[in-house]
């Protein structure tokens, strides 16, 4: 990574905000930005109090803004009550927004369906009533394993309405991953679809749920509610399985939103950490909602006339904050897309921006990099071939965007008239943390620029002391904010240890390395723990290692990452088999088998790009695997470091052969 970081840091182009976006912006000009930052610094409680009153509809007002008595288990607006779904839907009913389009859904094969706020409210209420009729109640946990659809948004909103805590599992995860999450949350309800359709192919979802539940441990699941997407064949367990349309049928289009304590968990979303077991990141209703709404207003400077399109899946936090909750709370019209950017051709995104007159487009660097390549080989689908004149803001999320990709995006998609917003945040932060503001912040390609008002970001050393400008360190947040993670489900100790280590003075430790330049701009340098970011998807090295060693042929495995021109990082696995060292076709066959195995254990996104076999792994005399050497080998470079502490230096040559 080091050469890449250096090239990022010599980046010295600066792009001033466009005048048309400065005028009338929610945060207009750097002075307005700084004034808000000052307001937050001088009296954080008064700042958040003002925003929570101005932006949220409370069923019972709170009296205390922040309770720090059990820090780091912070409580926000603790004695207040509200309902998230009422804040996203009911709030708009007696306003002109009621008849506005809430969702423009485009299916994989290009069919378009729209739903107004009023109609969405009715569908959410009907489904919530259906869930109630099935006996599901506040506080239960539901696994949602669905394709991108209006129904997925309905399912999440219906849960929020009843106070059923949802845990969405990305449709690309395997039945094993699904089962582990269902067990950990103690799910009583699973909401899924018969199949999902992506790139012209139907992929079963219900069958994966059946498989997961058959693995055991999920006996608490009373119902599996199934959205009929394709009508493909499914197995049916009478009494347990219910069609989503049957659950909603004949239900009233009104359902009283449950008044929930501000700190009632809204959702649990699993994400990878440094150990083998993914963490169930728990978010609280009021704080998350406030941060989702505020960041939509601030970062995207949202306007009533916007057509907002976030291309993420609801299986990731980006889909939670910037599809299901934030844009609806802001009353925006948004595009929801079922398919993939390369089907039926690589112009799909640009064609959809043109068709739906998208004004704010928010996607991942991996998509931009792969579409850059695709546009070169298929010039007829180059963004220049489409009318993208509706765009006013383009954003990036999930991984570092290198200056080359940034410039391509800025020039070819934004046509040098839309700011590129490089938004840094995490599942744990609930919403944007460090990001440019379209009406204020001068941009530097490759930098996520400056923290939002109320966010006290810093780069610190191991003792929590801030390091000087231009020096690398740990990215930390010095004060709590409403959208922050509340705990790790079932594991408060791990929450404390992972995010608030005692040596860091109570700061939130993000797990990323960063530097600030002389203007105070932040430059993210990637993870400092054993997390790999492949195409914006977080995966733990230990998770992949555990999956590999679970295979009967594998004795030992070590996983590292390597920079990749398209996916940002790629997974390289070093494997010691129980049998003798394989060669030639035999090795290729076993490598393929192990890749498929990892796909089955975790999901296709976790498949190692390279598998290298060896008779052993490079270890110190005390038996510790030397990952730093493996990272060098993974990149195809020669090891020049001192290997004198290695028990078995010859192993490095053997491990250099890719499969
Ligand atoms: C990385 C996704 C650089 C980072 C919203 C972080 C980024 C992890 C950026 C969180 C960015 C996210 N620049 N790196 N703009 N945004 N990351 O939880 O390493 O899936 O810690 O949340 O992605 O990934 P997560």
From TrEMBL:
Cofactor requirement: Mg(2+)
Domain spans labelled AMP-dependent synthetase/ligase: 97-481
PTM characteristics: Acetylated. Deacetylation by the SIR2-homolog deacetylase activates the enzyme.
Task of the protein: Catalyzes the conversion of acetate into acetyl-CoA (AcCoA), an essential intermediate at the junction of anabolic and catabolic pathways. AcsA undergoes a two-step reaction. In the first half reaction, AcsA combines acetate with ATP to form acetyl-adenylate (AcAMP) intermediate. In the second half reaction, it can then transfer the acetyl group from AcAMP to the sulfhydryl group of CoA, forming the product AcCoA.
Originating gene: acs
UniProt: ATP binding residues: 398-400, 422-427, 512, 527, 538
Swiss-Prot/TrEMBL keywords: Acetylation, ATP-binding, Ligase, Magnesium, Metal-binding, Nucleotide-binding
Binding residues for CoA: 198-201, 318, 535
GO molecular function, one term: metal ion binding
Family statement drawn from the similarity comment of this UniProt entry: Belongs to the ATP-dependent AMP-binding enzyme family.
An annotated GO BP: acetyl-CoA biosynthetic process from acetate
Organism: Pollutimonas thiosulfatoxidans
Limits of the Acetyl-coenzyme A synthetase N-terminal domain: 33-88
Name of the protein in question: Acetyl-coenzyme A synthetase
Coiled coil: none
Enzyme superclass (EC): ligase
InterPro entries per UniProt: Ac_CoA_lig, ACAS_N, AMP-bd_C, AMP-bd_C_sf, AMP-binding_CS, AMP-dep_synth/lig_dom, ANL_N_sf
Domain AMP-binding enzyme C-terminal: residue ranges: 543-624
Sites bearing N6-acetyllysine, chain numbering: 624
Binding-site list for Mg(2+): 549, 551, 554
């Amino acid at each position: 990574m080091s050469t890449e970081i250096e090239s990022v840091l010599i980046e010295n182009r600066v792009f001033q905000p466009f005048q048309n976006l400065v005028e009338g912006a929610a945060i207009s000009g750097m002075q307005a930005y700084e004034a808000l930052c000052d307001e937050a610094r001088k009296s954080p409680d008064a700042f958040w109090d003002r925003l929570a009153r101005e932006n949220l509809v409370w069923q019972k007002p709170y009296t205390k803004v922040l309770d720090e008595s059990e820090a780091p288990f912070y409580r926000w607006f603790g004695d207040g009550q509200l309902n998230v779904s009422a804040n996203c839907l009911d709030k708009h009913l007696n306003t002109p927004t009621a008849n506005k389009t809430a969702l423009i859904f485009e299916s994989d094969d290009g069919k378009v369906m729209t739903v107004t706020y009023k109609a969405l409210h009715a569908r959410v209420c009907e489904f919530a009533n259906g869930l109630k009729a099935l006996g599901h109640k506040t506080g239960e946990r539901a696994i949602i394993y669905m394709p991108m659809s209006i129904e997925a948004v309905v399912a999440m909103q219906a849960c929020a309405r009843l106070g059923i805590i949802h845990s969405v599992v990305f449709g690309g995860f395997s039945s094993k991953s699904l089962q582990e999450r269902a067990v950990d949350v103690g799910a009583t309800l699973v909401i899924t679809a018969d199949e999902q359709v992506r790139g012209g192919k139907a992929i079963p979802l219900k069958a994966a749920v059946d498989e997961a539940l058959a693995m055991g441990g999920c006996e608490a699941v009373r119902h599996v509610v199934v959205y009929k997407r394709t009508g493909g064949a499914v197995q049916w367990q009478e009494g347990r399985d219910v069609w989503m349309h049957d659950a909603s049928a004949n239900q009233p289009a009104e359902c009283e939103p449950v008044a929930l304590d501000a700190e009632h968990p809204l959702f649990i979303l699993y994400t990878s950490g440094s150990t083998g077991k993914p963490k169930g990141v728990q978010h609280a209703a009021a704080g998350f909602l406030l941060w989702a709404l505020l960041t939509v207003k601030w970062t995207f400077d949202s306007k009533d006339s916007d057509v907002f399109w976030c291309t993420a899946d609801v299986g990731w936090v980006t889909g939670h904050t910037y599809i299901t909750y934030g844009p609806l709370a802001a009353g925006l019209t948004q595009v929801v897309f079922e398919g993939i950017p390369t089907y039926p051709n690589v112009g799909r995104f640009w064609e959809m921006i043109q068709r739906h007159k998208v004004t704010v487009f928010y996607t991942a660097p991996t998509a931009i990099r792969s579409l850059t390549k695709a546009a070169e080989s298929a010039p007829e689908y180059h963004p220049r071939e489409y009318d993208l004149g509706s765009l006013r803001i383009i954003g990036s999320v999930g991984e570092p965007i290198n200056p080359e990709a940034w410039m391509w995006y800025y020039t070819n998609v934004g046509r040098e008239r839309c700011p590129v917003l490089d938004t840094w945040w995490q599942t744990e932060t609930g919403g944007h943390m460090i990001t440019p503001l379209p009406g204020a912040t001068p941009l530097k390609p490759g930098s996520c620029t400056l923290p939002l008002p109320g966010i006290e970001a810093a780069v610190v050393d191991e003792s929590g002391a801030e390091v000087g400008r231009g020096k690398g360190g740990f990215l930390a947040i010095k004060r709590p904010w409403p959208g922050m993670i509340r705990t790790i489900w079932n594991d408060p100790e791990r929450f404390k240890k992972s995010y608030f280590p005692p040596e860091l003075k109570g700061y939130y430790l993000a797990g990323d390395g960063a530097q600030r330049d002389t203007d105070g701009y932040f430059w993210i340098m990637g993870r400092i723990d054993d997390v790999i970011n492949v195409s914006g998807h977080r995966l733990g090295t230990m998770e992949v290692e555990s999956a590999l060693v679970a295979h009967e042929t594998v004795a030992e495995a070590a996983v590292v990452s390597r920079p990749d021109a398209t996916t940002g990082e790629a997974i390289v696995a070093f494997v010691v088999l129980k049998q003798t060292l394989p060669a030639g076709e035999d090795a290729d066959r076993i490598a393929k088998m192990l890749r498929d195995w990892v796909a089955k254990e975790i999901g296709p996104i976790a498949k190692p790009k390279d598998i290298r076999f060896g008779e052993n792994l490079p270890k110190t005399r005390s038996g510790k695997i030397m990952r730093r050497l493996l990272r060098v080998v993974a990149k195809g470079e020669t090891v020049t470091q001192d290997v004198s502490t290695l028990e078995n230096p010859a192993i490095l040559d053997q491990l250099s052969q890719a499969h």
